[in-house]
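Quick one, tokens below:
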């Protein structure tokens, strides 16, 4: 009996392995390798759903809007939820019907504190909250009240947009974050009072909670001593393995004064001000990261694009465990293409590569990027997912890329923010997405948890989590 058959002969073991698997692609590959008749019904439904929906919409939460987009898969979705699997409410469409079928709910559609004040938290595993001027101190205190006893709550997202002084209520809110919380995501839409509050509150919160993931966006810490105190707390947090620092100042600079924490595995950086990449390169050298995401939107100086991404590429081979690389840059360059062709074959563990031009310029270097990539892609022997965003395409470049894709590639995303006409390309070997409108959706969705185009007054929600 083969090893796969032995595992499949114990459906309960497979289900247990599935529950411990966070990556949807890993789970999909595992289940496809096993005989279907040895899987429990929810996992059989997972494979059926994966024929019609992206696996990232199915795991580790079932995304409600994707599920509802195809009525033919409704029953398979119900069976998958019985695993049990959390239902991710990313919209308020048919929310009352959906919540009846889920024992665990992750509310990722942002709700105001006023709306969330009436919740109970009994079934919540995650919630996305928005602080707005329409919220009162009483609303924040009410949310804090149920949050203290929300035993299943593992993630809280907070987008603060209020301009009024709610410091006292916010202190109550942060004190109520439950000790079992694993993920905390905070974005500030520009309130200086909230910014000042977080400068001191963050140290206490990181020290009290055993966070695995912390994401901070648009937080500016001007005082070096306070930035150092936050960086010290992050270094001292023995459970932290994922850190995002996006479009802020102070904390990143303080973090880079020393090597990255040895336990940190995922680092996500977005910045407008990476004029001197030296500290970042020294911190990355030899780091034990498996995932690195860099969005460099530094403005050009003297008509020359930022070359920080080129230097970061050059340091990647010193990171032996790196398996996921995502790079966003203002403009492609010949130096970048050359460095890519030299570096990629050295990344022995590389499974996922995302390259995104911030604005499509159609420069010579940008058009030549695929030509530089094509000869080295076959040497990336573990590459399974490739995203090339905002690049110009023609038939020649597409044929060149399609022929160069290694046999390990499963997904290719060709998203473009400015594309006016669909690309009529297809491949017999890989699943291509975002090149033309389809019901299937994106196989490699952007991992950002906040979207600035959604910032504004929260939509009223009629939702009860009881």
């Amino acid at each position: 009996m083969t090893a796969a058959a032995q595992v499949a002969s114990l459906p309960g073991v497979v289900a247990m392995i599935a529950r411990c698997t966070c990556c949807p692609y890993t789970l999909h590959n595992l289940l496809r390798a096993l005989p279907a008749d040895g899987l429990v019904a929810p996992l059989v439904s997972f494979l059926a759903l994966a024929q019609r929906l992206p696996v990232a919409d199915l795991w580790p939460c079932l995304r409600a809007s994707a599920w509802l987009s195809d009525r033919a898969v409704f029953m398979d979705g119900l069976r998958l939820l019985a695993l049990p699997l959390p239902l991710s409410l990313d919209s308020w469409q048919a929310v009352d019907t959906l919540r009846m079928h889920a024992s665990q709910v992750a509310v990722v559609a942002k709700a105001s504190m006023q709306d969330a004040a009436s919740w109970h938290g009994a079934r919540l595993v995650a919630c996305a909250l928005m602080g707005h001027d329409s919220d009162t101190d009483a609303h924040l205190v009410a949310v804090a009240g149920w949050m203290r006893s929300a035993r299943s709550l593992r993630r809280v997202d907070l987008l603060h947009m209020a301009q009024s002084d709610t410091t006292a209520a916010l202190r109550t809110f942060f004190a109520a974050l439950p000790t079992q919380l694993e993920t905390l995501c905070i974005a500030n839409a520009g309130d200086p009072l909230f910014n000042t509050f977080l400068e001191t509150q963050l140290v206490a919160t990181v020290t009290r909670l055993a966070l695995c993931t912390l994401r901070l966006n648009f937080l500016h810490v001007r005082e070096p001593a306070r930035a150092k105190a936050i960086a010290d707390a992050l270094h001292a947090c023995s459970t932290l393995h994922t850190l995002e620092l996006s479009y802020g100042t102070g904390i990143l600079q303080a973090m880079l004064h020393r090597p990255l924490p040895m336990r940190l595995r995922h680092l996500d950086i977005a910045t407008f001000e990476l004029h001197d990449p030296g500290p970042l390169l020294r911190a990355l050298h030899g780091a034990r990261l498996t995932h690195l995401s860099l969005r460099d939107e530094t403005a050009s100086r003297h008509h020359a694009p930022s070359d920080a991404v080129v230097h970061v590429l050059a340091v990647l081979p010193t990171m032996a465990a790196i398996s996921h690389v995502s790079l966003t840059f203002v403009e492609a360059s010949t130096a970048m293409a050359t460095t890519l062709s030299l570096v990629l074959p050295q990344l022995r563990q590389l499974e996922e590569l995302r390259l995104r031009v911030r604005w499509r310029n159609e420069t010579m270097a940008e058009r030549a990027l695929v030509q530089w990539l094509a000869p080295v892609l076959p040497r990336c022997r573990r590459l399974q997912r490739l995203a090339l965003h905002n690049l110009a395409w023609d038939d020649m470049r597409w044929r060149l890329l399609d022929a160069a894709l290694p046999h390990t590639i499963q997904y290719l995303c060709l998203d473009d923010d400015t594309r006016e006409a669909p690309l009529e390309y297809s491949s017999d070997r890989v699943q291509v997405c975002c090149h033309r409108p389809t019901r299937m959706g994106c196989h490699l969705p952007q991992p950002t948890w906040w979207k600035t185009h959604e910032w504004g007054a929260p939509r009223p929600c009629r939702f009860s989590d009881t």
